[in-house]
């Protein structure tokens, strides 16, 4: 599984973290300032990279969390059929089918950039 | 201690109660840092069963998340408190906030992003700054309405409300009354609140946030608050307003309770919060 462990304190807005077994992009990170009691806790808010679902996590800053290693890849559209497109990975020349995002308009030979993690792909707009 | 009857686990909660013992900008009598615990304490005697709604408080899936202890950097604290409250919103629960000074309402509003802010308050809280501080408790309604331009980290891009209704307001500076004259603010004087409630028919499908500043009540009923203002609302008048508005709310708070009385202010705040939960749950 392409992921690594990091301490919560190493996370920052814009980076990725696993929440509820889903890779999420962090859009808010804040830390409570402890007084005499308790350890500093961070509140992390993120959005699923592939499902767009908002999630939230609260952990001590020295806790370990999983960070997904998400690859950013280049592909070329081979053909478009309805809402699906055949896309060729420009590194491996592997061809796969992906759903055309609602706000995108694919045409054959067009180069696209996408994120890939464990067989899930998402076009970078 | 936990708020009496708030027995639900976090993952099954419909309502998440969070204490925010902020006591940074109180201008006359301090003590709001003791508000959350005091409200919990004086709610201990209330019956679980509510006859009007035929429901038990402990069945309504209320979770007490404890307090978010405050620290000096107001900006940072409000950001963190907002994130804590937003976690409840993300999980489809309604955040209930226990103040703390009124400034914490801005975190509640930012977390729940309502269209309308309804406050029960003796004061307009529409100052742009008080003692040079735009995050003073005397400015909270202005922040919710007009935002906070000097926030560099987010470009001042905080959610704001489209409209404010202040129930029971009876004092303010000339500048505040001038801001209140704009069409996006409705001020309902204490003597008119009963009529307002009687005619209230929701906000046309828009979502509201209810903030109960305990000084909206007459200080004879709730002396434990920082800036007492006579000629206020009776507890029953506030209760009826809470019953009417709560079903339309995406977030609710009770603020400005301190420890400078024998528990009257805390008892009223706790009872009003329970009324809000009963009413909100009953309308679901």
Walk me through the structure.
Chain A: Residues 69-123 form the Translation initiation factor 5A C-terminal domain. Chain A: InterPro entries: IF5A-like (IPR001884), IF5A-like_N (IPR048670), IF5A_C (IPR020189), NA-bd_OB-fold (IPR012340), Rib_uL2_dom2 (IPR014722), Trans_elong_IF5A_hypusine_site (IPR019769), Transl_elong_IF5A_arc (IPR022847), Translation_prot_SH3-like_sf (IPR008991). Chain A: Its main location: cytoplasm. The complex is a heterodimer of chains A (125) and B (284). With 125 residues, chain A is mostly beta strands. Chain A has strands at 3-7, 16-19, 22-31, 41-48, 54-60, 64-68, 71-81, 84-89, 95-99, 111-117, 120-123. In chain A, the strands form three sheets. Chain A has a five-stranded antiparallel β-sheet with strand order 9-8-7-10-11, with no helix packed on it. In chain A, β4 and β5 form a beta hairpin. The radius of gyration of chain A is 18 Å and the shape is elongated. Chain A starts with a strand and ends with a strand. The model of chain A has no long low-confidence stretch (mean pLDDT 93). With 284 residues, chain B is an alpha/beta fold. Chain B has a single domain (10-283), classed as Ureohydrolase domain (Arginase, Chain A). Chain B has helices at residues 35-42, 74-90, 105-112, 140-146, 174-180, 193-199, 235-245, 264-282, and strands at 15-20, 49-50, 55-56, 62-67, 94-99, 116-120, 163-167, 185-188, 208-213, 249-255. Chain B has an eight-stranded parallel β-sheet, with helices on both faces. Chain B has a two-stranded antiparallel ribbon with strand order 2-3. In chain B, α3 (105-112) packs parallel to α4. Chain B starts with 14 loop residues before the first strand and ends with a helix. The relative contact order of chain B is 0.19. The mean pLDDT of chain B is 96. At the A-B interface, β3 and β5 of A face α2 of B.
């Amino acid at each position: 599984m392409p992921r690594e462990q990091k301490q919560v304190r190493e996370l920052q807005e814009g980076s990725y973290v696993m929440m509820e077994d889903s890779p999420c992009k962090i859009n808010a990170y804040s830390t409570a300032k402890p007084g005499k009691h308790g350890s500093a806790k961070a509140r992390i808010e993120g959005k699923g990279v592939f499902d767009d679902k908002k999630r939230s996590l609260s952990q001590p800053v020295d806790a370990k969390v999983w960070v997904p290693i998400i690859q950013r890849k280049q592909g070329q559209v081979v053909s478009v059929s309805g809402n699906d497109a055949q896309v060729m990975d420009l590194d491996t020349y592997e061809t796969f089918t992906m759903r055309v995002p609602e706000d995108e308009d694919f045409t054959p030979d067009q180069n696209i950039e996408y994120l890939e993690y464990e067989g899930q792909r998402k076009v970078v707009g | 201690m936990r708020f009496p009857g708030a027995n639900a686990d976090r993952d099954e909660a419909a309502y998440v109660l969070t204490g925010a013992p902020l006591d940074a900008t109180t201008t006359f009598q301090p003590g709001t840092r003791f508000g959350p615990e005091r409200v919990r304490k004086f709610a201990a005697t209330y019956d679980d069963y509510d006859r009007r709604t035929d429901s038990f408080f402990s069945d309504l899936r209320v979770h007490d998340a404890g307090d978010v202890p405050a620290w000096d950097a107001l900006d940072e604290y409000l950001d963190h408190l907002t994130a804590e409250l937003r976690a409840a919103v993300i999980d489809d629960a309604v955040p209930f906030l226990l103040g703390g000074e009124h400034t914490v309402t801005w975190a509640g509003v930012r977390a729940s992003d309502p269209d309308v802010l309804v406050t029960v308050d003796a004061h307009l809280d529409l100052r742009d700054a008080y003692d040079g501080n735009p995050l003073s408790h005397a400015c909270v309604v202005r922040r919710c309405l007009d935002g906070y331009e000097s926030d560099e980290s987010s470009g001042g891009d905080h959610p704001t409300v489209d409209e404010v209704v202040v129930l029971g307001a009876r004092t303010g500076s000339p500048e505040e009354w001038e801001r209140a004259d704009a069409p996006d603010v409705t001020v309902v004087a204490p003597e008119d609140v009963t009529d307002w409630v009687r005619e209230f028919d929701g906000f046309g499908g828009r979502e509201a946030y209810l903030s109960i500043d305990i000084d909206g009540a007459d200080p004879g009923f709730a002396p434990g608050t920082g800036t007492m203002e006579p000629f206020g609302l009776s507890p029953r008048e506030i209760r009826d307003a809470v019953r009417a508005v709560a079903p339309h709310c995406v977030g609710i708070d009770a603020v400005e309770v301190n420890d400078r009385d024998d528990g009257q202010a805390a008892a009223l705040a706790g009872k009003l919060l329970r009324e809000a939960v009963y009413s909100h749950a009953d309308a679901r």
